[in-house]
Every structure is written in C-alpha cells, then in structure tokens.
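Teaching note: in complex prediction, the entire set of molecules is handled at once rather than each chain in isolation. The prompt given to students was simply: 'Predict the structure of this complex.' The entities are:
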Amino acid sequence: MRQCLQYGNEEICYQVNRVVSRKQKIAIHVYPDGKVQVDAPVDADPVRISDAVRVRARWVSKRLEEIRERNLHVLPREYVSGESYFYLGRRYLLKVIEIPGCVGKTKLVGRYLQVTTPTAEHTLVKRFVIRWYRARAKELFARRLSALAGQIVWLREIPPVKLLTMRIQWGSCSPSGVLVLNPSLVKAPRECVDYVILHEVCHLKEHNHSQKFYRLLSEMMPDWERHKTRLDGLAEALLND
Ligand SMILES: [Zn+2]
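The expected output is the structure of the full assembly:
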C-alpha cells in the first residue's frame, strides 16, 4: 500500500508494510535508493500510521535530501582504467589490459583490479568484473560463515547461502532457512560482512526484529551498531553497480 503526505512543499511517499508482531511499534525506514518503507502492525489504524510518518516527516525529508545530494556525486560506471572499485573496504583502481584472443582474467595486483580482456568493450569488462566479485563473494561468505558458526552454540548446522544482487538490501533470510546475501557486500569491510551474516543468522532463530532478536545479535557481536552505521554510510557507493 503506497501513500503520500505533504510536508512543506515536498511530497513524501511511502510504502506500508504490514508486519505480524506482538509489539505495536511503527518503524520508518529510508533506504539508500530513496524508498521510504513504514513497518506497521497488521491491525494498526491507517490514521495512526500517517500520524507516525507526519511526526517524523522532518527526519525523513532530511534523509531524502542527503540521498539526493549523494546521488549527485555518484557517477555511472564505465568500466575503464582508472575507475575505483572496492573490495573488503579497500579501494582499487581498475586497470584494463587488452590482449586480442585471450580468454580473459580478473585479479588483484597491488592496488589494481586488473582485467585482461580480448576487447576493452565495456559490457565485456563489466561482465568480467561482476563475475570476479561473485566468485570472491561466494568464497568469502562461505569462509566467514563457517568461522562465525563455530562460535554459535545454538546453530546446529551451517545454513545454505544463496547470492542475489539486490539494489537496496545486503541480505535476507528465507523462511526455509537459506541466507540470501548480496554479492556487493564483498566490497565492504570484513566487520560489516560479519555483521550482515550474523544478522541473517539470527533470523534463523528470531524471524522479526524483536527485542529478543537484538539481544541475540548483541550476544554474538556486541558492537554491531558501529558496523551497521558504517555499512549504511557506504551503501550508496557500494550498491551502485
Ligand atoms: Zn533483519
């Protein structure tokens, strides 16, 4: 359900997401792509929901303004030498080496992400870069998950992981217990990767963002909020592909 409200001379539109929860809380999220989502209890009165948004309209408007500002500086990628690419929180410069007839190879060499390609055609270079990120993501997520799982006493077995490119989300946990992780997460610092993995692992036990959920998460990662804040700040730059 999509609704809008007037704030000054601005129109704030939001999506209402009905959630099953014992708590009567209404939560407002502003995502890096400018989407506003309001999580409200299934039986919450529509007036109560719009009032909740109205009360926080100033905050929502400020967040949207920040996003517009940031978007002005984020340029679309061209997959040419000299562009910046992130891997585990570090910045690497793309270096495209054209060798006609070669099979194509992507690897890190010093501070460069080096792509050797039969042609420098940007869709091809893009394909190599995306393939490289996916391969790194698959490897890293499996490694971190098995390291972290060793410390979680209630986890009986390592859950399966699926990679899924998402525009506004780092991960989710399917009802059948599959951890869905965004391959772009491999661009973030390792602690942020661990935070997302642990967050989704906690959903295996607690399916919503209840107090119990956050207690569980804090037990495993006491300083998770610090990593979440850092990741939120990086979202626009890292999800832009
Ligand atoms: Zn969650």
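Point out the following to students. The radius of gyration is 20 Å. Residues 199, 203, 209 surround zinc ion (CB under 6 Å).
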